[in-house]
Amino acid sequence: MKLVFAAATNSDAAALAALHTAVAEDLTRRFGPGGWSSGQTERGVLSEMRKPKFSRIVMARCQRRIIGALRLATKKPWAINTAHFTPACRPLYLTGMAVHPDFQRQGVGRLLMKEAEAVARAWPADAIRLDAFDAKAGGGGFYAKYGFREVARVTYKKCPLVYFELTLPPAAGDLEIDVIQDKCLRGKGGLLRKVRGSSALRPAGGGVLMIAV
Ligand SMILES: CC(C)(COP(=O)(O)OP(=O)(O)OC[C@H]1O[C@@H](n2cnc3c(N)ncnc32)[C@H](O)[C@@H]1OP(=O)(O)O)[C@@H](O)C(=O)NCCC(=O)NCCS
Q1: Ligand 1 mean position, distance from CA 104 (Å)
Q2: Which residue has its alpha carbon closest to ligand 1 atom 42?
Q3: Which atom, in ligand 1's list, is nearest to the CA of 98?
Q4: How far is CA 183 from CA 189, 207, 212, in A?
Q5: Three-state DSSP class for 72?
Q6: Contacts of 44 (CB under 8 A, 6+ apart)
Q7: What is the pTM of this model?
Q8: CATH (residue range 3-167)
Q9: 117-142 confidence digits (pLDDT tens)
Q10: Which residue has its alpha carbon closest to ligand 1 atom 21?
């Protein structure tokens, strides 16, 4: 199966809503009603794509049909309590992981997650966090197989959840820094500025400078 990965655009919203609805209906048929039973509307998908700096949807296509998707966002979902996770400077939160029922258990989810990891590293992010239903219908087993670490089991609004994280240590290439101006340097993760009167470097957008050795 040849898969093509891409960032979703507004024109994909209806197909993405249909994908989530198909997945929700399939889970409900197999496991009964639960938190997994609500699909998504086109309007809901569109609102998730409104601010690409903070939220992106990654899709997998097979012969132009969208067969899998997930969302990465800087804002944490309500159900996540960050106190349970390994401290991170730039975590991303993964939601809406879905592979169409006709294509599940054929390796699509793993390849989609690999793409998400690449997107997260380029963001740049240093961790991917998520919650899964602590139930047979949940995807916890899939995340654990991919390499996510279970960090906690909690109950949010009477719904048992498992928290998972994947830490993303900086790649060796992140040390490459080119001087492009006297006071402005470009690192792999974005612009860095020299702090006036010192030899220290700061990311232009604020935050923390990560150096891989
Ligand atoms: C969970 C989901 C995203 C996985 O995608 P997929 O394409 O079916 O997964 P893959 O075929 O890439 O599987 C990779 C590995 O994870 C395992 N796996 C997949 N789904 C699993 C699940 N629900 N529970 C336990 N293990 C699972 C596979 O058996 C495979 O293991 P292997 O390497 O030993 O063969 C997909 O099945 C799905 O959309 N499910 C319904 C929605 C859902 O549960 N979303 C998560 C909400 S918490």
Answers
A1: 7
A2: 98
A3: 39
A4: 17, 18, 22
A5: strand
A6: 17
A7: 0.85
A8: 3.40.630.30
A9: 999 999 999 999 999 999 999 999 99
A10: 142
